[in-house]
Design a protein that fits this description.
296 residues, alpha+beta, Rossmann fold, 2 domains, 11-stranded antiparallel beta sheet, 4-stranded parallel beta sheet, 8 helices
């Protein structure tokens, strides 16, 4: 592997933490003997173009510095190639980095661990989800949680995560089950009323909410968590348990495993890795060993 690697930086991640994280990560990588080139980009489209050019040019690794959105953008450049991906988690959620056991908001430590992984060839091939050519690493969300995202994204005030707390309160007031048609592996069809359906390649979203707590990045399958029809009171009781993953044994929750999941519901937008995918219907497929990652 070449010693020339690319640092893929989102300077606005985590209210500026991305820019601050780049320097200690780059220092750690250079101290380990790597030649580091930094890619910023004028916007997401330009940044992705530059990242793809680095991968096509033979960079030894693409190291994403930022949050889950930046990691997701980096995936679009490296998925399906043998170029390793490293993560320096400096965003708000950092669920992908957590799934890989990488440090969160400690860029120097992340840089050192990535350098050790690359130099020792301690790399791991993991699965990814794919929807219409777009890759995702953690969870595809639809239903109540995606509606909270929709509402929060429309709000201009307040800023930060607090607006999503307000959006959740507003969506709770309007809570109603949604009629879903779920098709698993092209065969089994379930028509149900559901509060939300989450398709997990990884286990968590939203900064540690373990909605698909038992999901395995290397089993070639999604964990599909379905929260059925429930009242506001029940949802509020179940919700705190999501952080521990103990919600899965609640009677209103069911889990299915499949390599291909088709979702149909009216008026629902899907999000994956926190990024909008578009309205349902859509089909997600789990692609085994789709990306090579640097791990501790």
């Amino acid at each position: 592997m070449t010693s020339e690697i690319t640092l893929f930086v989102n300077p606005t991640a985590g209210r500026g933490r991305g820019a601050h994280a780049a320097q200690p990560a780059a220092f750690a990588l250079r101290a380990a003997g790597f030649s580091v080139r930094t890619v910023l980009g004028e916007n997401a489209e330009d940044a992705l173009k530059r990242a793809r050019e680095a991968v096509e040019g033979g960079t030894g690794a693409l190291i994403a510095v930022g949050g889950d959105g930046m990691a997701n953008l980096a995936l679009q450049a490296v998925a399906g190639t043998r170029t390793p991906l490293g993560l320096v988690a400096a965003g708000t959620g950092n669920d992908f980095a957590r799934a890989l056991g990488l440090p969160v908001r400690d860029p120097a430590a992340a840089g050192r661990l990535i350098a050790e992984s690359l130099k020792g060839a301690r790399l791991r091939d993991i699965d990814l989800g794919r929807v219409n050519g777009t890759w995702f690493a953690t969870v595809l969300a639809s239903g109540f949680d995606s509606r909270v995202n929709d509402r929060g994204n429309r709000m201009r005030w307040p800023v930060g995560r607090f607006k999503y707390d307000l959006a959740m309160i507003a969506e709770l007031a309007a809570l109603r089950p949604l009629p879903y048609r779920i098709t698993l592996d092209g065969g089994e069809v379930r028509e149900i009323g559901a509060t939300l359906v989450a398709v997990g390649n990884g286990s968590s979203y939203g900064g540690g909410m373990r909605i698909c707590a038992d999901a395995d990045l290397e089993d070639g399958l999604f964990d599909v968590t379905v929260v059925g029809e429930c009242s506001r009171t029940t949802l509020l009781k179940v919700f705190p348990r999501v952080y521990r993953g103990t919600h899965l044994d609640h009677p209103v929750v069911t889990v299915h495993r499949a390599a291909k999941v088709e979702l149909l519901a009216e008026g629902v937008t899907a999000y994956a890795d926190g990024e909008p995918l578009g309205p349902l219907p859509l089909t997600a497929e789990c692609v085994p060993a789709a990306v090579r990652v640097a791990i501790p």
